[in-house]
Amino acid sequence: MTTLRALIAAALVVATFGWAVAKLPPPAPLDDKAKAAAEEKKAKDAATADAAKAAQARAEDRVAARYLAEQKAKGKTVTPQMAPNSQPAAPAKAGAKAPAKKQ
User: Fold this and answer.
1) Quick check: pTM over 0.90?
2) CB-based contact 78:71 (threshold 8 Å)
3) pLDDT of 26-62, one tens digit each?
């Protein structure tokens, strides 16, 4: 009997949800002004993300430099190593060609 009640309750929830979604109005198409505002917001968010990424990199560099200085003050030699998931140095420009190999 409990299974039957659970099935009826689930069916009631699904039916109510479907009815509520059907009552929602369709989304309005974006006009030129809204599209321009969306593009501006997208560009602004990208610039903010780039600024945050740069700030994070500066903070990491500051912490690493401080750690190296502290270890050097203690008389320990520390060799910084790149993490396995770190990015290599930025590649050269796309138009630049690699130097030719000597034969």
Assistant:
1) no
2) yes
3) 888 878 898 899 999 999 999 999 999 999 999 999 9
In contact, 23 and 15? CB cutoff 8 Å: no
3-state SS, residue 54:
helix
CA 52, CA 56: separation in Å to the nearest integer?
6
22, with CB counted inside 10 A (0-12, 13-18, 19+), is exposed
Cβ neighbours of residue 18 under 8 Å, at least 6 residues apart?
none
d(CA 80, CA 68): 8
CB burial string 71-80: b at 16+ within 10 A, e below: eeeeeeeeee
